[in-house]
Amino acid sequence: MQTRDLSEHAVYRAGEGSEEVARELGLDPDDLVKLSSNENPHGPSPAAMTAISEAASEVHVYPKSAHSDLVAAIADQWEVAPAQVWLANGGDGALDYLSRALLDPGAAVLVPEPGFAYYGMSARYHHGQVRSYSLRTEDGFTQSADAVLDVYDGERIVYLTSPHNPTGTTVDLAAVERIAAETNEDTLVVVDEAYGEFAETPSAVRLVEGREGWDAREDIAVLRTFSKAYGLAGLRLGYAVVPEPWADAYTRVNTPFAASTVACRAGLAALDDREHVERTVESAVWAREYLDSELDARTHASEGNFVLAEVGDASAVASAAQRRGVIVRDCTSFGLPECIRISCGTRAETERAVSVLNEVLAG
Ligand code: PMP
User: Fold this and answer.
1) Which domain holds residue 357?
2) How deeply is 154 buried, as exposed, middle or buried, from its count of CB atoms within 10 A (0-12, 13-18, 19+)?
3) Does 190 lie in the same domain as 317?
4) Best of 36, 160, 227, 333 to mutate for ligand 1, by most ligand atoms within 8 A of CB?
5) Which residue intervals are annotated with compositional bias (Basic and acidic residues) in the record (predicted)?
6) I need a labelling partner for 178 at 20 to 30 A (CA). Which of 90, 231, 256, 293 fits?
7) 142, 94 contact by CB (below 8 A)
């Protein structure tokens, strides 16, 4: 039997327990500024909240198993066939479906280092192996086709993250295409765009579909989520857009009801409220710039809703900030013990975080 390394799950508890922290500090939990999980500080669209309340009267019956309304709306948004949309319990759920569909026992995946932990966790839970490529350069982090191709050794899935968590870097579409073209035919390149709404870089869906001057490719998939720009992290709703040849594999790997009625209703309403997403992105861009210019630490240019900052002893800085009521992500678990990641908060939250962190950094 495959055993799980439970310590891996600790990364999912980073930033949890704010209420206990507040109690220990004698603070009102509402006074804590939690900028550790890249959530939307403005919450979901009001239309999504209404949809959630309205769906309450239906939760005694099972959802439509094909989740057809939401899947059709997502397919419409990307101009793909509904079968190419693999709806799941969050982006994490979609990663599990990809692992299940692609990984025979012992098959390997290639993941970025530093990078999002669940690529490797999901592969291991599906009896796969994990290898990594490095984003590190002399003066920071970049994502290049060379870094991937230099170490590629026939892995079944190659993960790219754009924007990348936690560095905020993106991969340009020419690099994605080159990686797909120069890897084996049966390697699927998965571009994780969990933070895609916040980026200038366009979505790799155009490579899957062959639009805007690109040839269509059958070896690229794209991951998206409602957890970030849509502010629905607690609902657990995400999906992969897969190329045509993989469309039918969904029915072999999905759980019978991949997303709840409540999640589907909220997702549908959220998709419709473009303005809420636009306001969220505007606010994140402001916070990114503010963090860049006002924090007394080296920051890395980010296209996500967070900024990576070099602060020396990240664990000490994060703890000291937490004692002052500001929770940021200590990136030691990403292999970056000198970095913290600060999510873009509201204006007030971001200003308070910067002021507290600057106080801590001044020692
Ligand atoms: N990809 C990346 C890069 C992430 O940072 C996250 C969440 N932190 C996810 C995927 C998955 O998010 P979710 O399961 O909430 O959709």
Assistant:
1) 6-44+275-361
2) exposed
3) no
4) 227
5) 1-11
6) 90
7) no
- Residue at a domain's end among 213, 245, 272: 272
With contact defined as beta carbons under 8 Å apart, do 49 and 40 qualify? no
pLDDT per residue of the chain (363 residues) written in tens, 0 to 9: 455 555 565 555 555 656 777 777 777 777 899 999 999 999 999 999 999 999 999 999 998 766 789 999 999 999 999 999 999 999 999 999 999 999 999 999 999 999 999 999 999 999 999 999 999 999 899 999 999 999 999 999 999 999 999 999 999 999 999 999 999 999 999 999 999 999 999 999 999 999 999 999 999 999 999 999 999 999 999 999 999 999 999 999 999 899 999 999 999 999 999 999 999 999 999 999 999 999 999 999 999 999 999 999 999 999 999 999 999 999 999 999 999 999 999 999 999 999 999 999 998
Same domain, 109 and 252: yes
Among 162, 228, 305, the mutation site with the greatest number of ligand 1 atoms within 8 A of its Cβ is 228
Question: What CA–CA distance (Å, rounded) separates 17 from 23?
Answer: 10
Predicted TM-score (pTM) of the model is: 0.95
CA separation for the pair 248, 84 (Å, rounded): 8
Tokens 């560095």 locate to 167
Domain at 209, CATH number: 3.40.640.10
Tell which of 215, 248, 272 closes a domain: 272
ipTM over 0.90: yes
* Residue 9 CA to ligand 1 centre (angstroms): 14
Distance from Cα 363 to the centre of ligand 1, integer Å:
33
CA distance 36 to 138: 27
